[in-house]
Amino acid sequence: MPIGVRIRDLRKVYVSSPPSAAQASGSSLIGTPGPRGTSKAEVVALGGISLDIEAGEIFGLLGPNGAGKSTTVGILTTRVRPTAGRAWIGDHDVWEDQVAVRRLIGVVPQRPNLDFALTAREILTFHGAYFGLSSAAREARATALLEEFRIADRADQMVRGFSGGMMQRLSIARALMHDPTVLFLDEPSAGLDPQTRLLLWDIVRDYNRQGKTIVITTHNMEEADALCHRVAILDHGRVIALGTPAALKASIPGGYLLRLRFAKHTPDLLARLQALPGVREVRPQDTTGAHIYADRGGSLIPEVASLAVAGGAELLDVHISEPSLENLFLHHTGRSLRD
Hints:
Structural class: alpha/beta
Number of strands: 15
Number of helices: 12
CATH architecture of the largest domain: 3-Layer(aba) Sandwich
CATH class of the largest domain: Alpha Beta
Number of domains: 2
Shape: elongated
CATH topology of the largest domain: Rossmann fold
């Protein structure tokens, strides 16, 4: 039976000693008192997020590095203790009922953590034994997964000689050995070649069709758009947007984003750009850049260039893009998802 995930007011604050360089330079750091009068800096990884992930959906946590995606997954998979708030896998409180939660979930970490002293088959069968599968069941399951992930020809070789893509496929196969109800994939396609990435996407879709709930963290907009039924976009430990990829993209003013770079712009030029037909919104980016959200793209460029010449502002660069999750993040934060 498919089960969902609930998160309520989840907060995580890491406390660490200030860097020695900051102490030496005399820089002031806001922190909490530490042992023997030392100061400890606080890093807020999650600022109180709440989410409902429906049973049987592919849900994406999208955001740049440091947004809080991996911390959220760490809490949901019992590896990170929350500072405040609660989370449930089905009816089980993640922190109070860890054993039951671990039987329900499969986890693929950002970086493969395989035992190099074992063969691929041994890694799978040992994992199956850990979850109580019989000898016959784990051998059959391992053989099927090795075939599905296209590593059957290397099944009895040590994994130290595997490529990065093969290690990642084996990591996912290991997570599926006990047939988890909820699968967590933390940056699953990072560093993969396009062919392996497409294979991974097909496997994720197939597993989801069996009624499994899948949670993916990624900063790859294409991946989120292609796989996820819904996504939550995180920034600085908070949810800044939530919905289906199509609905989120449709929420951006206009169908196009034009990123302009001038030698220097003026308030008068920005006002004239805003008055152009089809322009929904103009946002200045420091003293040289501007983002235009509009109903048209390429046909707007001659008019933009003409206004720039008339206003004595040299137009240096133009970048046009259609609605995307990247543009949504830019609209909300003014930054790229990869910043």
